[in-house]
Design a protein that fits this description.
The structure holds 2 protein chains of 2 kinds. Chain A is mainly β. Chain A contains no helices and 11 strands. In chain A, strands 2, 4, 5, 6, 9, 10 and 11 form a 7-stranded mixed β-sheet that branches. A 4-stranded antiparallel β-sheet of chain A has the order 1-3-8-7, with no helix packed on it. By secondary structure, chain B is mostly beta strands. In chain B, the strands form 3 sheets. In chain B, strands 2, 5, 6, 10, 11 and 12 form a 6-stranded mixed β-sheet that branches. Classes of the chains: A mainly beta, B mainly beta.
């Protein structure tokens, strides 16, 4: 089955620790995205990448880092600089088009601080 | 900046009643509009989209939305809801000159028997 796989489903972070969220897709999509979801806040864009070895900051990139070494993979690292990391993180992908007409989403990772 | 406003954070409704979820967007010469649905602890799924053409757009699960340029609205409707429609619904916009979607804050649809 084609789709997007996020892992782990639940993740706990200790103070001062970096953690990495995994996102893999086998849809042959060029573009990939990371969103953060907080209750009542909707989805906010952290980073996105439209091609391998290139990525751009979204609206709330501070305290996060990404890499795009392979087309299929777009891991997100939540660094110790992110002071309020507890949230639901969603990865998405799409074929690159002018209309960005359909995003495919993973099932999310819930990150909590111990 | 492109923006979208969902006026209601929660909409409670009884089963088999009609429902409308409201969405207003920032105006642009060229705009694309989307509704996504999120079931608990899952990612989002596309319900429907407006790119061009007919202003009445039909989506999955019996939902439809109408693009109203003069009122800059894209309200989502369903004539008769089911318990299984309980979920959070997100409106999203893509204006010309932008390459990523902007999502609204979501509306939680609560369907009770």
């Amino acid at each position: 089955d084609g789709g997007i796989t996020q892992s782990p489903k639940y993740l706990f972070r200790k103070e001062g620790q970096n953690v990495t969220l995994s996102c893999e897709q086998n849809l042959n999509h060029d573009a990939m995205y990371w969103y953060r979801q907080d209750p009542g806040q909707g989805l906010r864009l952290i980073y996105y990448s439209q091609i391998v070895n290139d990525f751009q900051k979204g609206d709330i990139a501070e305290g996060y880092s990404v890499s795009r070494e392979k087309k299929e993979s777009f891991p997100l690292t939540v660094t110790s600089a992110q002071k309020n990391p507890t949230a639901f993180y969603l990865c998405a992908s799409s074929s690159v088009s002018a209309t960005n007409e359909k995003l495919f989403f993973g099932s999310g990772t819930q990150l909590s601080v111990l | 900046a492109q923006s979208v406003t969902q006026l209601d954070s929660q909409v409670p409704v009884f089963e088999e009643a009609p429902v409308e979820l409201r969405c207003n967007y920032s105006s642009s010469v060229s705009v694309y509009l989307f509704w996504y649905v999120q079931y608990p602890n899952q990612g989002l799924q596309l319900l429907l989209k407006y790119l061009s053409g007919s202003t009445l757009v039909k989506g999955i699960n019996g939902f439809e939305a109408e693009f109203n340029k003069s009122q800059t609205s894209f309200h989502l409707r369903k004539p008769s809801v089911h318990i299984s429609d309980t979920a959070e619904y997100f409106c999203a916009v893509l204006n010309s000159g932008y390459s990523t979607l902007t999502f609204g804050k979501g509306t939680m649809l609560l369907v009770s028997p």
